[in-house]
Amino acid sequence: MNQESFPKKHDPFEALRIPEFSYFIFARFFLTLAIQMQSVIYMWQIYALTKDVLFLGYAGLAEAIPSILIALFSGHIADIIDRKRIILTAGLGLAITAIVFSWLSSGSVISDHHFGTLPIFGLIACIGIIRGFLGPTFPAWMAQIVPRSHYTNAATWNSTIWHIGFIAGNTIGGLLCMFTLSNAYLTVFITILLSLVSVLLIKPKSLPLREKKESLQESLTVGLRFVFNNKIILGALSLDLFAVLFGGAVALLPAFSDKILHVGSMGFGILKAAPAGGAVITAFLMAYMPQKKNAGRNLLIAIAGFGMATILFALSENFYLSVFFLFLTGAFDNVSVVIRHSILQLMTPDHMRGRVSAVNSIFIGSSNEIGGFESGVAARLMGLVPSVIFGGAMTIGIVFITARIAPSIRKLNLKSIE
Predict the structure, then answer these.
(1) Does residue 132 lie within any of the structural domains?
(2) I need a surface site. Which of 85, 222, 261, 279 has the fewest CB within 10 A?
(3) CB under 8 Å to 133, separation ≥6 — which residues?
(4) Which domain holds residue 361?
(5) d(CA 20, CA 11)
(6) Are 341 and 135 in contact (CB under 8 A)?
């Protein structure tokens, strides 16, 4: 019998066998590691200075607003300028913020007696602008490095590496908070440089040809029009948007570690890393068992599970149970991340990947920070624990509404669009 008549065996490592994709995920890992370490350090620094959960929400808003404002323009840039050059420039910008953080923390500029947290928020806003360019560029660049048949596998490993970096970054960041903060920020700087070395190992890629010449205004809005005209992409993005917006317990972890669990900076780092731990385990499982045939159904189940785990975390007063429930939030969240990224990669034309990825970053990337602000406000108005219970319940409610009004999401099969 002809061997071609047998279905091709699934290779869970097919994307990793491409050398340049390996360099890509190393760059992604070190950059994620650096960003998360820096986030843990400045969030702990802000809470140490203010002891106010609302300021944790302000930190998220300070990053989200610049990122949202720049997103459509950055997507346009990612489709007309070499994406490797954009990532190198943005990485250098992040390295500079780490050096400035280190300098400020070594002196008396950041203190209750001088400018308080104002310099921190200024630097966070700069990070928001930089990440506004990185958000659409990384996924668009990845699509140039791997063939279309490897998109789902590449999205799985990209998510895995991101979450490993998230875990390590939060854990190491929590440890670094126990030492001199100026040296902690220097560690961030060195990690960013490692990421840039990995980027340099990847050859520049020619940009896809655009189908027609567009004015700047048309180019800036084409990603929005494409997303809003595609019900499957819009539905997947909306689900994740509301889940992150209302289920943002992570933004309140400094307060939970201090007031509820009493575990200090090290415990805070472990709590912040726990969701990524669950995500990594799930990602490895999905590499071997890709969620294609029943992708829509699994997406809805995963987001509902995320909401339920969030509620259980809010009710827990035991550190180990809290870590476990946060672990579950990450496990459920990663299912939706991989499915959403696969949808975007498979359904987006090559010449507009940057602009569509920019819309994704508005929906998802910035919603983490806006969700942090929402969590801070809700915690101030409702109390710490009730606000997180409310967010989890809202997430579950949105899943039921979406399942009822959007049957195309519920019936989504990724194999049919590969």
Answers:
(1) yes
(2) 85
(3) 70, 74, 77, 78, 86, 89, 90
(4) 12-202+218-417
(5) 18
(6) no
Q: What percent of the chain has pLDDT over 70?
A: 85
Residue 242 falls inside a structural domain: yes
Residue 102 within any structural domain of the chain: yes
Chain segment 124-176, per-residue pLDDT in tens: 999 999 988 998 888 888 888 888 778 778 887 887 888 788 778 877 887 88
pTM above 0.85, yes or no: no
Q: What is the CATH number of the domain that holds 189?
A: 1.20.1250.20
Count of residues in the chain: 418
The 3 state secondary structure assigned to the chain is CCHHHCCCCCCCCCHHHCHHHHHHHHHHHHHHHHHHHHHHHHHHHHHHHHCCHHHHHHHHHHHHHHHHHHHHHHHHHHCCCCHHHHHHHHHHHHHHHHHHHHHHHHCCCCCCCCCCCHHHHHHHHHHHHHHHHHHHHHHHHHHHHCCHHHHHHHHHHHHHHHHHHHHHHHHHHHHHCCCCHHHHHHHHHHHHHHHHHHHHCCCCCCCCCCCCCCCHHHHHHHHHHHHHHCHHHHHHHHHHHHHHHHCCHHHHHHHHHHHHCCCHHHHHHHHHHHHHHHHHHHHHHHHHCCCCCCHHHHHHHHHHHHHHHHHHHHHCCCHHHHHHHHHHHHHHHHHHHHHHHHHHHHHCCHHHHHHHHHHHHHHHHHHHHHHHHHHHHHHHHHCHHHHHHHHHHHHHHHHHHHHHHCHHHHCCCHHHHC
- The token duo for 375 is 């969590």
Maximum Cα–Cα distance across the chain:
81
Residue 131 lies in a domain: yes
pLDDT tens for residues 237-294?
777 777 777 766 677 787 888 888 888 777 877 887 788 788 878 877 877 766 666 7
Instruction: Retrieve residue 366's tokens.
Output: 């910035």
- Give 14-50 pLDDT, tens digit per residue: 888 889 999 999 999 999 999 989 988 888 888 777 8
Query: What's the CA gap between 358 and 137, in Å, rounded?
Result: 8
